[in-house]
Amino acid sequence: VIGIGAQRQGDDQDLRSRLAEAEDTLRAIRSGEVDGLVVQGPDADRVFTLDGADSFYRVLVDQMPEGAVVLDAAATIVYANARLADMVGAELRQVVGRTFTELLPDAFRGAMDEALAGGVRGLVVGVDELSVSPRGTVPVAIAMRLITDGQAAVHCLIISDLTDRKQAEHAVAHLAAVVDSSVDAIISEDLDGVVRSWNTAAEIMFGFPEAEVIGRHVTETTAQGHEGEVAEILRRVGHGQLVELHETTRATKAQGSIEVAVTVSPIKDAAGRIVGASEISRDVSERNRIEAALREAEARFRSAFDQAGTGMALIGIEGAEAGRFLQVNGELCRLTHYSEEELVGTLFSALVHRDDAAQSAVGLQQLLTGELAISIGEIRVIAADASVLWALATTSVVHHGDGTPSYRILQLQDITERKRFESQLHHLADHDPLTGVFNRARFERELDRETAAAHRYQTGGALLTLDLDHFKQINDSLGHAAGDDVLRAAASTLHGRLRASDILGRLGGDEFAVILPHTDHDQAVEVAGMLGRAVRERVDVATARGARNATASIGVAMFDDGARRLSSEELMLAADNALYDAKDAGPGLVRVADPAGVPTSALSPRYTWAERIREALSADRFLLYTQPIVPLVGDVAPRFEVLLRMRGGSDEVIPPASFIPVAERFDLIQEIDQWVVRHALELLANGTSTGPGTCFDLNVSAKSMLDGRLSSSIGRELEVTGVDPRRLTFEITESAAIINIAQAAKFARSVKRLGAGFALDDFGAGFSSFYYLKHLDFDYLKIDGEFIRDLVNSPTDQVIVRAIVEMARGLNRQTIAEFVGDEPTVSLLRELGVDHAQGFHLGRPRPLDRAESAAARSATPS
Amino acid sequence: MPETMNGAPVAAQSAQEHYALCLYVVGASPASRRAIRAIREICDTALASRYTLEVVDLHQQPELAAEEQIIATPTLVRRLPLPIRRLVGDLSDRERVLAALDLQGVG
Predict the structure, then answer these.
(1) How far apart are CA A685 and CA A568, in angstroms?
(2) Nearest CA in chain A to B30
C-alpha cells in the first residue's frame, strides 16, 4: 500500500510538474517569448516558425558560393540562387521555371531523370558536368535531397563548381608527368629523411620500385652508409639552403653503387614553411669515367713525355710563341745540354744546323697546310757545347677543336751513332780498307764523272795507272804484313803529292790509279814523274838485308788526244797498256799511251791482261789448286778450299793476284767463277783426283754474287753431275758482302736452298762484321788471317778469336781459321774451340787438274 | 570546496551534481539568440565546469522534437539531475531559470 501510495504520490508530482510546464508554455506563447511551434504531422513533426526565424538562412543560401536549386516533382526549377544563374550564364529570372535536366549535357540527363523519379530521399553526390551556355560546360558535383512538403515532394540540390579543383588536378597530373618523364631521379623526402615521392627515373637508376621506398628512410635504401651526409644535407635544406650538384655515391638495389650529382632544395608549404626536400640525382658515372679516362690519358701522355727515351718538345705555332719551345722533356735537355729553363721560350730553329734549316722549314710549311700529317727528317742539332747531334726529327701538329693549328709536337731521336755507322759503311763501300783510298768501284764512278765533265767543258785531263815493281816478291818473301805496309806507305805518299782535286784509287793488288782533271799532256807526264820519284824516295821496303826503295811503273792516258775522246773503259785500257809498256821497259818508268794504239788490241804490240784472261777462258788455261781444311775436333770427310791459278804462255803458273783484279775490272770474273764451278763439280763427280766424299769450298766474287746468274748455273751443274750438294761450300768475302748486303743474303739463301753450305770469308777484316752476321745465313765463319798469323804471341788476337768462336757457337755455326803457320797455333786454336784450320802448316795449295795433279804430287811430298 | 564566480559557496545539495542541459531553438531568430546567450551565461557563472550543454536547431533536426516532447521554442530541458525539467520561453530572467533548475542561492 505504501508502495502504491508512494507511486501515486510520484505520479501526482509528475503530473503537477507537467501541468506547470504546460501553463508555462502557454504563458510563453502568449507573452510572445516563443518563436517556433512543433506540430505533429501524419509523417513527421513539422516546425512552424514565427517572427521570420529563417531569414538568415535565406541570405546564406542566396549568397553562398555553391549553386542552390529547388525542383518540384516535375523537375521544374522553383527556386535558384544567384550562383546557379551565374554558373549557367543566365539571368536568375530566366532560370526559375525551366526544367533542370535541360541544363545538363545529353549524357547525364537520363541519370538525373532516374535520380529524381526514384524519389531519392538522402544525399546523392555525383561529379557531373553541368551544361551551360554560352561557355560550354563546367564540371560540377551535385548534392540532392528530397523534402516532402505536406502534399508535394520537392528536391533541394546543391551544385558545386569543380573547375578550379579540376584545373588543380590537371596541374598536379601535368607536374607528375614532367617529374616522371625526367631522366634525372627526382625524389622528395620530409625533413626527417623519409621518402615521400619517387619517380620512374629513380626506379631505373637505383633499382628500387616506388612501393618499396615510400615511407622508408633514404639511408635504408639508396643512401646506405651516407647517414652523416644525408643528415647534414637535410639540416642545411631545413635552414633554407640549396645544396647544388653535390657529387657522391648512392647504393643500388643490386648492391652496386652509382656516382651521382645531387641537387637538394627545400620544399615549402603554402605558408612558406619548409616541410621537406626535393632531391634530383643525375647519373655522373659515365661523365666521371670519361673524365677519369681523360685525366689518365693526360697523365699517361705527361709521363710518356717526361720519361720518353727520345727528346720531345711542344712548339708554338701562333703569334709570339711561333717556333718557340713551350715545353721540353728531360731527354731533350740531355741531348742538347741545355736546361729546361734555357730551352723554353727559345726558337727551335736556333738549334738547327744552318744547312738543315731550309729542309726543316719546308717540312713545317707542309704540316701547316695539311699537305703532310707528319714530317720526318734527319737534321743536325747544335748542342749547348757546340757539338753537332744528328737527329731524326718527327713533327706533327695538334689542332684546336675548330681545326686551326694549336701547337706542334717535336720528337728528336739521337741518330748520331747511326749516322756515323752509315758514313763508315759508305766509306767501307767506297774505300779500300787497307789504304783508305777509293776502291776500284768508286774510282771507276769518279772516272766516269770526270771524263764526262772534262768532255763537256773541254777541260782535258789524264788517267794514271801505277804499279809497284816486284811487289809479288815483296809479298812472298817478306810476308803479307810487310806487303800491306808497303801498300799503305805508297798510298799515303801518293796522296800527299796530289792536288785536292786529284783522285786516287787502289784498283787491286799493288795497282793504283790517279785521275788528274784539268791537266794537259806535259803536266800529266810531269806529275807522273813526280809521283814515281816520291815513291822511290819515300816508300821503303824492309828486307832482311836492310831497307831498300820501292819503285813504281806508271802508265799515262790522256782523256782527249785532240782527235777523239775516250770512254773511261778505253782510258783504263790505254793507261794499262802504257803501264805494261813501262813495266817492260824497266822498273820506275813512265809511259804515255799512244793514241793510235787505243783501244784496239790488234794495234797493240802486246796482249793486255784482259785479252790473256779471255784467251785462258777459251783455251781452258786455268788450273785448280786445293788447300786442305783440317778439322781440329772430330773426324770428318776430307775438305779442301779450291784455289785458282792461270797458266801463262810459257806454261808458267800465274797467281790470282795478277789477273783477278783485271778480270774483275773487265767483268770477266763471272765467267771465271762459272768455269771454276763447272770444273770443280766435274772433279767431284768423276772422283779421279779426289777421294770419295771429298768436300770443296769455292770462292765466289762480288760481281758473281751481284749478278745472280751464278746460283742458277750451280743448280744446273749439280743436276748434270749428280754431285751431293752437301759436298760444296761457297765463300764470299766480307768486303764483297759490304757492297750489297741484300744481294749477299739472297745469294746465301739460294745456295742453301740448293743444299750447299755458305761461308763468310775474311771475317773480322771489315768494320761492321757483326752487322752482317745478323743478316747473312752462313754456315761457316772464316776468321781473317790477320788474327791467326801471330795468334800465339798476341793476347789481343786470342781475345778476338775467342770472342768470334763464342759468338759463332752461340749462333750454332762453325769457325775456320786461315793462315795457320805452325803447330803451337793449331794447339791454341783447338784450345780456343775453333772447328777447322787451314794454312801452310797443314797443307799448301796443290794443283788438282788432271795432268798437273800427278806432277804436283811428286813435286810436293805430303 | 569549489567556488562560484562571485566567491559564494555552492549549495550543498547541488554542489557535486553534474548538469546535462539541452536547449531547443529554431534557426538564428532573435529569441533563439537571446536564449543561447542567457543559458551560456548562467552555465558559466552558476555551474562552472560541471555541465554539458547541447543546442538543437529544430529546423535542421525536426525529428528530435518528439523525443523530448518539445512543442514550442525556445525550450530548455534539464536532463540531469533527474527529474527532467522543461522551461519554455524567454531565459533572460536569471532567477526564474535558476529556480527552474533548482539552483537557487547559487548565483
Answers:
(1) 43
(2) A53
Measured distance CA(A738)–CA(A482) in Å, rounded = 26
Cβ-based contacts under 8 A for chains A and B: 95
pLDDT category at A825 given cuts 50, 70, 90 is: very high
Kindly indicate the confidence band of residue A854, based on its pLDDT and cuts at 50, 70 and 90: very low
Scanning A301-340 for CB atoms below 8 A from B yields none
pLDDT of residue A135: 58
Total-model pTM: 0.36
Of A14, A25, A35, the CB nearest to B31: A35
- Selected residue of A47, A55, A59 to mutate for chain B interface (largest B Cβ count, 10 A): A47
Cβ neighbours of A45 in B, within 8 Å: 62-63, 65-66
Spacing of C-alpha A657 from chain mean position: 54
DSSP E strand stretches across B28-81:
51-57, 72-73, 75-80
Which value, to the nearest 10 degrees, does the dihedral of the CA atoms of residues A293, A298, A300, A306 take? -170
Q: What is the pLDDT of residues A655-688, one digit of tens each?
A: 887 788 778 777 788 899 999 999 999 888 887 6
Alpha-carbon gap: B1 to the closest alpha carbon of chain A (Å)? 33
Hunting for cell 626506379 — which residue is that?
A: A203
Interface of B with A (CB under 8 A): 25-32, 58-59, 62-63, 65-66, 70-75, 83, 85-90
Search chain B and give the residue with CA nearest A22.
B88
Q: Using the beta-carbon criterion (under 8 Å), do B62 and A47 form an inter-chain contact?
A: yes
Q: Please answer yes or no on whether B58 and A47 come within 8 Å at the CB atom.
A: yes
Q: From edge to edge, which strands make up the β-sheet containing A405-414?
A: A325-328, A311-316, A405-414, A388-399, A374-382
Contacts within 8 Å (CB) and 24+ apart, A365-370 = A367/A395, A367/A396, A367/A397, A367/A408, A368/A317, A368/A397, A368/A405
Chain A residue whose CA is closest to B24: A36
Contact B62 A45 (CB under 8 A): yes
Please check whether residue A659 is in contact with residue A684, taking contact to mean a CB–CB distance below 8 angstroms. Answer: no
Are the beta carbons of A33 and A51 closer than 8 angstroms? no
Give the integer Cα–Cα distance in Å for B41 and B34: 11
Closest residue in A to B87 (Cα) is: A21
Neighbours of A54 (CB within 10 A): 17
pLDDT per residue as tens digits for the range A474-491:
877 787 888 888 999 999
pLDDT category of residue A734 using cuts at 50, 70 and 90: confident
Nearest Cα of chain B lies from the Cα of A26 at a distance, in angstroms, of 9
Instruction: Give the pLDDT band (50/70/90) at residue A253.
Output: confident
Nearest chain A alpha carbon to B60 = A47
Crossing angle of helices A656-665 and A609-618, rounded to 10°: 100
Q: How far apart are CA A219 and CA A221, in angstroms?
A: 5
Is B72 in a helix, a strand, or coil? strand
Q: How far is CA A658 from the centre of its chain?
A: 56
Query: Hey, are the CB atoms on B89 and A27 less than 8 Å from each other?
Result: yes
